[in-house]
Design goal:
271 residues; mainly alpha; 0% strand; disordered N terminus
Length: 271
């Protein structure tokens, strides 16, 4: 009898401890939901920011003395036209500095999901032409996406769960379903606007997309849209809005390319 009482007391104490631990866990989760990054994670992200700032500072210091008030991230086509008109004077004489500065800014924007890389793609076309512009944008877009991938792998999980829980669940289910032909699916996502590229960059390591699949899908998948945007940069002055970049024919072509890339996955799922 005493053994049963002792056992009951032990079970009650264990149950109480479990409830306390559960309450504490809920409290911790509620606090992390308000600000999901720890001090260490913020420090790592800040270190990446600092490295980009130092790189851009070196470029700035090696440029000739001049008025650089035009140097800012373009938010409109007017801003982009001003930036392009001024950078044309430097590109031929300070090609290395312009290229390093361009790559640093583009990779920084991709890493931290800063909108506006479409303007940077237009700028590449207007400054360097189609072939060099496409090569430059594909390189910087891939490098920035890779940087975002690895940064998200280290510290991005709480942010993605808090910002896009439903979209992440959908993406995870699709990746799991197409695991055997995942490259085709990644190509489809890159070519078509099914999911935003920024979301793909930050969510891929969380849903266990292998980096070699992510890398190859990015390199090949961004080429069609990059070509359309860079080519439009050659006639920057004729653009009235960003919406002019993608007319019905361009969007239909991108979806057709995406459909071709995902066809093996569709066939495999039926067999």
């Amino acid at each position: 009898m005493e053994g049963e009482v002792g056992t009951s007391s032990t079970m009650a104490a264990a149950s109480l401890k479990y409830e306390i631990d559960a309450n504490n866990s809920s409290l911790i989760e509620s606090k992390s939901a308000k600000f999901p990054l720890t001090f260490w994670e913020i420090s790592m992200a800040s270190g990446v920011v600092l490295s980009f700032v130092l790189g851009l500072s070196c470029v700035y210091l090696t440029m000739p003395a001049s008025d650089y008030s035009f140097l800012k991230l373009p938010r409109t086509l007017e801003d982009l036209q001003i930036l392009k008109d001024n950078l044309e004077d430097y590109t031929s004489d300070y090609t290395v500095q312009v290229l390093v500065g361009y790559c640093s800014v583009y990779i920084f924007m991709q890493t931290f999901m800063i909108p506006g890389t479409i303007f940077m793609s237009l700028l590449a076309g207007s400054l360097f032409g189609i072939l060099k512009g496409v090569a430059l944008v594909v390189f910087t877009a891939t490098a920035g996406a890779s940087s975002c991938y690895f940064l998200s792998k280290m510290i991005g999980k709480p942010l993605v769960f808090s910002l896009w829980p439903d979209k992440l669940t959908f993406f995870q289910a699709q990746v799991a379903k197409r695991r055997e032909r995942l490259l085709n699916y990644m190509l489809f996502l890159r070519v078509t606007p099914t999911l935003p590229n920024t979301f793909i960059n930050v969510a891929s390591p969380i849903v266990d997309v292998p980096y070699h699949i992510f890398l190859l899908g990015t390199i090949v998948g961004v080429i069609p849209a990059t070509y359309v945007t860079v080519r439009a940069g050659l006639t920057l002055g004729e653009l009235q809005s960003v919406g002019d970049l993608y007319d019905f024919n361009s969007i239909a072509t991108l979806f057709l390319i995406g459909l071709v890339s995902v066809t093996p996955t569709l066939i495999g799922s039926k067999s």
